[in-house]
Design a protein that fits this description.
This protein is an alpha/beta fold. It is 64% helix and 8% strand. It has 5 domains: 176 residues, no CATH class; 336 residues, ABC transporter type 1, transmembrane domain (ABC transporter transmembrane region fold), CATH 1.20.1560; 153 residues, P-loop containing nucleotide triphosphate hydrolases (Rossmann fold, 3-Layer(aba) Sandwich), CATH 3.40.50; 61 residues, no CATH class; 34 residues. It contains 29 helices and 12 strands. A 6-stranded mixed sheet has the order 8-9-10-5-11-12, sandwiched between helices. A 4-stranded antiparallel sheet has the order 4-3-6-7, covered by helices on one side. β6 and β7 form a beta hairpin. α2 runs parallel beside α4, α11 packs antiparallel against α13 and α15 packs antiparallel against α16. The chain starts with 21 loop residues before the first helix and ends with a helix.
Length: 848
Amino acid sequence: MISYCGNTSSLSPVWVEEGFSLCFYYTLSASLLTFMAALPLPFQIHTMRRRAVTVEAKYRKESVFNILQWLSVFALLVETPIRFALDWSKVYGYVNGVDVFNFIARMILILLTMVLFWFERSKVIMHLKLKRHSVALVLSWGMLLLIEIVSVTSWNSPDWWFKRESKADEIDFALWVTRLVSASLLLLISLAAPGVPRFDATLLINADSDRDIEDGMEQLIRSRRTGNLGQQSGSTWKGAKTKIKLLWPYMWPSGNVLLQLHVLICIGCLVAGRVVNLFVPLLYKNIVNGLTDGESWNYILTQIGLYVTMKFLQGGGLSGGFLNGIRSFLWIRVQQYTNRRVQTRLFSHLHSLSLRWHLSRKTGEVLRSIDRGTQSINTLLSYIVFSILPTIADILVAIVYFVTSFNAWFGLIIFVCIALYLLDTILITEWRTKFRRDMNTKDNRAKQRAIDSLLNFETVKYYNAERFEVDKYDDAIVDYQSSEFKSNASLVLLNASQSLIINIGLLVGSVLCAKFVVDGTFQVGDFVLFGTYIVQLYTPLNFFGTYYRMIQASFIDMENMFELFDQEQEVVDYPNAITLEIEDKSVQFDNVCFSYQPEKPILKGISFKVNPGETVALVGPSGSGKSTIIRLLFRFYDIQAGVIRIDGTDISTVTQSSLRQYIGVVPQDTVLFNDNIQNNIRYGRVTATDREVEDAARAADIHDKIASFPDRYNTMVGERGLKLSGGEKQRVAIARTILKAPDILLLDEATSALDTTTERHIQESLNRISTGKTTIVVAHRLSTIVNASCIIVLQDGEIAERGSHDELLKLNGVYAGMWSQQLSDVAESSDTNEKGDGGSVNDKVKTK
């Protein structure tokens, strides 16, 4: 009959003759291996079988390190049955139950790692896009290494093979070295993952590269290599240097001596905190030893006083301590400085982007990205400077102290435990990154859906689509919560693995320290010191995973913000751009060519001149380029060929600010700020007085209307000016332009969407403000531009005709046809109205 522990060993006590009980050690290690073999490995293998695709052999890269990995795995595979056979032969002719348990657990684990290793070598899960081993495989190899390292604590035990007092011990020691070296190589090489295919190879799975390039895959491959797709992939530390370089100018408050002093004091508090953290357990040790050895009352009282003082500086529990309190208080202003500088720079950058970008942007996503990105800056700086760096410093101090004051084993235990903890944290957190990114994408999508729906409130009502909008928003939230569940579930796995590693280290160290106290090597105070120091060290280490996750989350949250920073300005001032000075107010287009897309030209060699004080009208069918001319003159875009001049000066050589201060625009679709009428008019010249605002309103023929409102000029216009009618909004825009007093006036179909009566009143206002100014009018209704100095007819991006109203009618060409068509439309409309109210057709034509 086989006994579990054999005749010379037992499961308890755990510590026997300066080492672990062999039965306990092998039971614990086999249990850990069984856990890994029963849960993470089978799950990952199942995932690979179900979701991975095969990579062709020609895309699997061979390397020396990959071969070394395979040799290490085979070494572990061969060593396990050899050791089991030796145990069978040397222990009373039969094997113990714990040996069988350990043999089965190791063999199953090693075989599963080989299967998973082969899958990761030959298959790829497409959506992961990461060149690394799975967390389950790395943790399994790490567990094999940890088991061998922990056995070193039994170096002096006669029950173990480290003494090498017999031939059997020599063999066991050689096998242990084999396991230690093989497991170490596997874990270290796994960080580089030399045998895992790259993502660009997965794009070529089961296909020829020529076929992929023909299908447009070449650009996708390049974008994946450079990380230029819209959705970021890979580690969030990728590009960290660029991100930190962008943030660095805001971290140090240059030019503000007071804030710089705040930063220096905060750093001083950090250094002082590291010293305090070392002395707190030392003073506690002195108190315990003093009470045990019967030291004098004065000595005890002094140590207690110093201990309480240090605890006051250090803090604990819910208290942050005096040093942390001072640091947090002083850092508030520094944090606000950084946050304000980044937000204002980003806001300025967005305003500098081209009209093309703003027309294609998604406002909800942009606002959400700005909000999350600026908040993440505070989190990033706080955690890196005041959490990660102090924790690393405390770890280094602890290792040095225990090596010098205790012995090397305690330093090794702390080093190995912390190294595995950090490795576990980094690997699992990197794995979780994709879930966080997916959460952000779906969060943006949900917020964008909500904002679009609210902005189009009237459209939703028109089509009775409230239920449809709610259902779509609900679907977006469900989609977001699916990613949120994956993120939170993976967090639970991370916390469990961290707790396991920490408590194994605490167990090994405490058992070893207690043994030394029992042997008389250490005092009771030393055991108290070890326990106090380790708990004190593990407390911030427990939060290290949180800090790392928060830093990862901050980098992820900042990615969308950095994408906004990466948007390049399409229209920029030249380094030597001059300031425009206007005298005669002439405008000239000379052979101007422009296209929004290369394959679809909008303007083809447009040339015309507007003399000072003249009014030139642009007419033509939709898409002929009328509004584009207005945008090019205002320099919303740069032209591809030709020259646009004002007073003989090429507008591309002057600053945009000086150009635009001379130009006033009354657009077709007037958008007002959600403010009162007075401030919306004053936006034309923010330094204008209330009297000047009222004079501009009178000139635009809207003063009397404003005076009839209960709040007069303090009347709020609502979102985008929706509380005002179309005619009222247009007159406010005209008043704003009058207040600006521009030398050049651009009217972009300013009355096309208004009724006839309102159009007639606004046209009178426009005629008044354009008197004496160089004016370019984009006209939809030809009746509004019959008095223009020159009418230019555009067709297919070219000038088809030009001349006065009468001259163009005599040509009997495009303009004459448009004029006849509009007269016909007016007649039909009048005929319809006559049938309804019996009025005169001629009267109605005159009215039109």
